[in-house]
Amino acid sequence: MEIKIDRLDDDRRVATINGKTYTLLRAYKDGRWGPWLFLALAGRTPLYATDLEEHWKVVRSGDVYLAFSERHFAYYLLVGGENADAPPGWPKFKAEPEYYCFVGLTTDAARKQAQLALEEYRPDLDVEKVTLRTISDECGGPDAILMPV
Questions:
Q1: What's the rounded Cα separation, in Å, for the pair 72 and 64?
Q2: 52 near 67, Cβ under 8 Å?
Q3: In a 10 Å sphere around its CB, with 0-12 CB exposed, 13-18 middle and 19+ buried, how is residue 6 labelled?
Q4: Per residue in 126-136, pLDDT tens?
Q5: Any bridge partners for residue 27, and if so which?
Q6: Strands (E), 43-115
Q7: Residues 6+ apart with CB under 8 A from 129
Q8: Who's near 145: CB < 8 A, 6+ residues apart?
Q9: Three-class DSSP labels, 68-120
Q10: How does pLDDT run across 70-109, given as a tens digit for each residue?
């Protein structure tokens, strides 16, 4: 997958993915797992999971696309790790990620998602005792939350 990001001005960025151009709305990356974890894009050219690396999911609503690394959003792995049953539409992973990623309209919303995931899948863990870290949005939007396994 080749993603090139250009800054048009302080507020606007453009992403080119395999020669297809989109307005970049949100982009989160952390170098440990390859460059990107989550992208929000807008454009009339269809974006498909095959345009990205293996184990990426693309969700479309009109001209807006959300693309995310499935491993880092597969919260079901919190239950039983690699032995957990994958829900329909999700791949069976051989290993858990180092971190799970949570993205929201605000940083507080992403934190709340992390809390709800723990309540659902690991009620034995207290979210106040789990070290959460933030990663910045390349577009200047709210931070995403990373939660270690």
A1: 21
A2: yes
A3: exposed
A4: 878 888 889 99
A5: 39
A6: 56-61, 64-69, 99-102
A7: none
A8: 101, 102, 103, 107, 110, 111, 113, 114, 132, 133, 134
A9: EEHHHHCCCHHHHHHHCCCCCCCCCCCCCCCEEEECCCCHHHHHHHHHHHHHH
A10: 989 998 888 877 778 888 988 888 788 888 999 999 999 9
